[in-house]
Each structure stands twice: as C-alpha cells, then as structure tokens.
TrEMBL record:
Residues 12-191 form the DJ-1/PfpI domain. It comes from Candolleomyces eurysporus. Gene3D superfamilies: 3.40.50.880. It comes from the Eukaryota. PANTHER family: ARAC-FAMILY TRANSCRIPTIONAL REGULATOR, DJ-1_PFPI DOMAIN-CONTAINING PROTEIN. This is DJ-1/PfpI domain-containing protein.
Amino acid sequence: MTSSPQVIDIGVLLIPGYQWLDAAGPVDYINNHSHAMVKTVAVPETLLAKAPVINWHYISSEGNLDQVPASSGPPHVPTTTFVDCPTIDYLLIPGPNPAVKLSAECTSFINSRFPTLKGLLTICTGSLAIAQTGVLDGVQSATNKMALKMLAQAGLLNKKVKWVWDKRFVVDGKIWSAAGITSGVDLAAEFSRVHFDPELVELVKTIMEYIPNPAQPDPFAYLFDGVSLD
C-alpha cells in the first residue's frame, strides 16, 4: 500500500517593496522538491512518493488582498489575509526596505503564529523587519550586511538580536535567516537538505544546475572590517 505524500503549508509574508529575488529564489528552489514539480520529470515512483505536497499561502502584510508591489517584476496578488490565513508550518519573510515599520496587525499575526511554526525563514532585510516583533530576541540571525553596517554605524541597531555578519545564512533553533539577497537560495538549499529526501535533493540540484554555497566562508564578510556591532 502506497503512503500519501507529506503535506507542507508555507506562508510568504508580502511586505510592500520586498526584494523580488528574496521571495522568488527560495520559493522556487523549495517548490522544485514538490510532488507537483517532480512528477513532471521521469523519475521512479518510489522517488516521486518521497516528494511532498507543498501548499503556498501569500499573505499581505497590509491585511487585505490588494496587489503588493515588489522591488521589480509584476505586483503580487495575496492569496490570504491575517484573519483568513490557514494553519502554516513555515513562514518565509522576504526583505523590505530596512526602515519599514510593521503594522500592529502584522506584528500581532507573527507573534500569534510563531509558537506553532516549525520554522521561520527570513531573507536579507526580512530579519530586520521581523526583529521589531521580538521573536528574534536572543537569537543568532543573519541579514543584509550593507543594511546591518549602516544601522550599526548610525547607532540604530536592534541589539536584542545576536546579529551574525560573517555567514551567508544562520540556523538557530527554528529560525532560519539568510544574509544578502542571493543567500536566500543557499538558505533554501540548506532547508531542503535538512527536510527532504537526499535523493530528491540531489535531483533538484541537478535540474537547477546549482551547487549551493555553504554558510562559511562568506566572501562578503569583509564588509564588516573595522565595524563593531557592540
């Protein structure tokens, strides 16, 4: 008897002006492991059975279904609101302008959902935005280095977070955070390696013709030469 595929629900929080690749890169990389994508490739049924069903839920940070503009590309149409969002296993936060202020409703949504999440994934400045909610307090987190450097030099850094400047991505408990924009793809690759079948992971790397970068060494760590986070 064939068992049913694993079902995973992932939310993507759309903050106006979010970096397009912050969302598109990780979403597409992870989704390529899904049952819907793998079945389009000639693979044995035993491997297809290991591919999870992945449901994506695009959540507007404005609490409505109005189109959300990204840094480039077409406006994104949310599929759900804070009120109607179903139960999700993971929440992915692509990075917005680092100066963005989250609404009280958005903060409440994140704080209410965080305890039941299996994982929170932030890309680039997404961690700077989510730090406003308090869920990153005491947590090691990566973020965009240029933004982190500017905030540190201006004395505006949220020091409740243990900011990491010399890694492309960091995993601390159920917090997964990526540094610069393209680091999000490497974070997605690491997430996939941890959560999906090894044979499936190798198949996707081959299809995408991509060799994931490790967390270290980080070729952009030099940006923090002479900069203190204290």
